[in-house]
Design a protein that fits this description.
five-stranded antiparallel beta sheet; Arc Repressor Mutant, subunit A; globular; 3 domains; Rossmann fold
């Protein structure tokens, strides 16, 4: 049986509060934790506070100072300067992001209540925690298992994802295609950002795949995966990627198809030769969070070579400035971009 958890909110606008209550209804079919809204902060399992207001920031600080047992969730555009242990729900309010944060909050709640007895207990808290740990083995950018990350880890398979209301999309990940007859692109993007446990995923044999897609038009999944990766990164590297790592492209991203973002063009040009995140930030003057988002998106589409832990040394010969006629394509692009 799922455990019932309660959420209290503060400083939210009327429209966001109404949306929040609607989204909480999506957890009713969850097999681990069902969330309900409460007007009593003391009875709440978690507290959601809009920290983009002075009052909200003050409330978070006060809540932390009082060492309350509830899990704190900050609703914010950037979440800059949040105390340790406060979860972040990014604006705007989206169902996929909320469900992912609630999953993480449930993990905090159950781990805190079970404590050292988790391994010995067989009660609801221990069962919830065990299920969440199992679903988080494919943890992604924000520490919660997303459908996109699951597809990335199973890139050699054909997978069918079915949402809570029975709508489906088939991902032929290896061939970079997807098929659906009842979901829009925006809805598929939301599905990719959803927690793995919120959808049903089935592996398909080649015969089953051929039968199901014979009357469905194939669509390019690269732009979809790219957009979803950028949207859910939140400035945090995917598991397995290092902040001090050295990154290099193994092929040029089709930015005409993926979106001709000027920063992405600069980063792609720099990553042709390779560099660290600090190196990229120094040359582009861009926020590190935006660079990390780009690195994640490249990783999801397998544009990156295996990273090294540090930037390789450059020999004196390599440091010489090449003549104009010997410059490669990417060097000319860097020159045109002024970097």
């Amino acid at each position: 049986m799922p455990q019932t958890l309660r959420l209290f909110s503060s400083q939210l606008s009327v429209s966001n509060l109404l949306t929040l209550k609607i989204f909480l209804g999506l957890t009713k079919t969850d097999r681990v934790a069902v969330w309900e809204y409460t007007d009593d902060p003391e009875a709440a399992t978690a507290v959601l506070i809009d920290t983009d207001t002075p009052e909200g920031r003050s409330q978070v600080k006060e809540w932390v100072d009082r060492k309350k047992s509830q899990v704190l969730i900050a609703f914010s555009d950037k979440g800059i300067g949040l105390p340790n242990g406060v979860l972040l729900l990014s604006r705007p309010l989206r169902s996929a992001d909320l469900l992912a944060v609630l999953q993480e909050a449930a993990t905090h709640c159950t781990s805190g209540s079970a404590g050292q007895e988790r391994g010995k207990s067989s009660g609801p808290a221990a069962q919830v925690s065990a299920l969440l740990e199992e679903t988080n083995t494919s943890a992604s950018f924000t520490g919660t298992g997303r459908v996109l990350n699951f597809l990335y880890k199973n890139h050699d398979k054909a997978l069918k994802a079915i949402d809570r209301v029975g709508r489906s999309v088939i991902f032929d990940v290896w061939r970079r295609r997807y098929y659906t007859i009842n979901l829009t692109r925006t809805e598929v993007e939301d599905l990719l950002a959803s927690p793995v446990r919120s959808v049903q995923i089935q592996e398909m044999s080649s015969n089953d795949l051929a039968k199901e897609i014979q009357n469905i038009k194939a669509q390019d999944s690269d732009p979809l995966f790219w957009t979803a990766a950028l949207a859910i990164s939140n400035g945090q590297l995917m598991l397995g990627l290092l902040l001090e790592g050295f990154y290099k492209l193994n092929r040029w991203p089709d930015l005409k198809k993926l979106g001709a973002d000027p920063l992405h063009m600069k980063l792609a040009a720099l990553l042709r030769s390779g560099g660290t995140i600090d190196h990229l930030a120094h040359f582009t003057k861009a926020p590190v969070e935006n660079i990390i988002d780009f690195i994640n998106a490249c990783q999801v589409l397998h544009y990156l070579e295996n990273q090294q832990k540090s930037m390789p040394s450059v020999s004196p010969v390599e440091q010489k400035k090449p003549s104009e006629e010997k410059r490669g394509l990417f060097a000319r692009i860097r020159s045109r971009l002024g970097i």
